[in-house]
C-alpha cells in the first residue's frame, strides 16, 4: 500500500513538472521577429518594398519581406547561422528614361539576434547623409575643366526644375550648390533626383557646360540634367558629368 502511494506521488510530481520544463525552454512569442513600416518623406506608406534581413558575418545569409498596402512588414529572424543580423530596404523606380534603385533611410542601424523582437522603420529620402560617412542619398554632378581658368571649387551650380515634382512625387524647388573638391574630383553633392536644367556661375565669367557623354550636345550656358551612371559608381549612386569651359 505504501509503495503504491509512493508511486502515485511520484507520478503526480512528474506531471506537474512537465509544464514548467516546457515553459522554460521556449522563448517568448514576441521574440525572433523584425517588424516595421516603410514610408516616403511625407509619411505616406510605401507598399511592395523589399526589406532584407542580412547576417553581419556570413555571406549569402538573407531573409526577405515585402511591405503590404499599409507599408508594414514582419519577418522572422533566422536561428541559423547564429550571431548578429541587420535590416535594410530598397525601392526601385523608373523615370526620365532610367531605372533607379534607392537605399531607404533606416530608423536604426543597430544589429540584433534571433532572441530579439525589434522594430526597423525606413523612409525614402532623396537627400541627406547616409549612415556610412561621406555617402549621400542624393546624386552628384561632376565638373571637369576644359578651357577656363575659373577656380572650380568657387563655382556655384544652379539647378532649375523643369517638372513640378521630384522622382518621389515631392515638390521640386530651385537648388544652389557650391562645387567641392572631393578626393580630386570637383562635384556638387547630394542633389535630389528630379529633372533640371543646370548652369554654372562665377563672377565676371560666362561659363559653358557640355555633357561629357552626349556627342550631340553642344556647350551652352544651360544644360539639361538627367542623372544616371557615369564611371564606377555603387548600386544606388547616380551622377552626371560635364565639361566646364568659357
UniProtKB/TrEMBL annotation:
<keyword id="KW-0378">Hydrolase</keyword>
<keyword id="KW-0121">Carboxypeptidase</keyword>
<feature type="signal peptide">
    <location>
        <begin position="1"/>
        <end position="22"/>
    </location>
</feature>
<keyword id="KW-0645">Protease</keyword>
<dbReference type="InterPro" id="IPR008969">
    <property type="entry name" value="CarboxyPept-like_regulatory"/>
</dbReference>
<protein>
    <submittedName>
        <fullName>Carboxypeptidase regulatory-like domain-containing protein</fullName>
    </submittedName>
</protein>
<dbReference type="GO" id="GO:0004180">
    <property type="term" value="F:carboxypeptidase activity"/>
</dbReference>
<keyword id="KW-0732">Signal</keyword>
<dbReference type="Pfam" id="PF13620">
    <property type="entry name" value="CarboxypepD_reg"/>
</dbReference>
